[in-house]
Amino acid sequence: MKISGVDIRPGNIIEYEGGIWRAVKIQHTQPGKGGAYMQVEMKNLIDGRKTNVRFRSAETVERVRLDTKDFQYLFAEGDTLTFMDKDNYEQITLDKGVLGDAADFLQDGMDVVMELHDEKPISVQLPDTIEAEIVEADAVVKGQTASSSYKPAILENGVRVMVPPHIGAGTRIVVDVYERTYVKRAD
């Protein structure tokens, strides 16, 4: 499906210069001279490269529809991750790089959504938030105010996040997977 370059929105998957790209950020610019254009920051879903491209309203790009399927994460072995198709129980292995930094948050048995293009896995979407236990938290420095100060803490998966001063080791918290930030204390 062809769309105008100025109609690209964050999250759109487009075909550009022979690659499959996801629009990450967009900025519509209307200079005093010349025509308006859309500045699009894109990430290649095959090799992870990033690029910035200007699209004018006269330019069109091919919008790509990806198939999505529910998978379950099973285990990691070296730099490969194994997932199971929840419909037919077939297993598939992917390179850890396909997930990027989000791979740190994978948990055994976690349900994920795999995006496929021509039956080939392109990306894996984890839940936006996960629950994790804090294994190590720095002590509160006396005199810090509770309103704006956060302290570093290390989660059970080794990821470092900033948490409010009242959160200590052994506490379960909810973490935003893609922003790597503290959301709230787990119930």
UniProtKB/TrEMBL annotation:
Localisation: Cytoplasm
Domain spans labelled Elongation factor P C-terminal: 130-185
Molecular function, one GO term: translation elongation factor activity
Top-level division of the source organism's lineage: Bacteria
CDD domains: S1_EF-P_repeat_1 (cd04470), S1_EF-P_repeat_2 (cd05794)
Pathway membership: Protein biosynthesis; polypeptide chain elongation
Keywords: Cytoplasm, Elongation factor, Protein biosynthesis
PROSITE patterns named in the record: EFP (PS01275)
Segments forming domain Translation elongation factor P/YeiP central: 68-122
GO BP term, pick one: peptide biosynthetic process
GO cellular component terms, A-Z: cytosol
Main location per the UniProt record: cytoplasm
InterPro entries: Elong-fact-P_C (IPR015365), NA-bd_OB-fold (IPR012340), Rib_uL2_dom2 (IPR014722), Transl_elong_fac_P/YeiP (IPR020599), Transl_elong_KOW-like (IPR013185), Transl_elong_P/YeiP_cen (IPR001059), Transl_elong_P/YeiP_CS (IPR013852), Transl_elongation_fac_P (IPR011768)
A Pfam family of this chain: EFP
HAMAP family found in the cross-reference section: EF_P
Family the UniProt entry places it in: Belongs to the elongation factor P family.
NCBIfam families: efp, PRK00529.1
Purpose of the protein: Involved in peptide bond synthesis. Stimulates efficient translation and peptide-bond synthesis on native or reconstituted 70S ribosomes in vitro. Probably functions indirectly by altering the affinity of the ribosome for aminoacyl-tRNA, thus increasing their reactivity as acceptors for peptidyl transferase.
Name of the protein in question: Elongation factor P
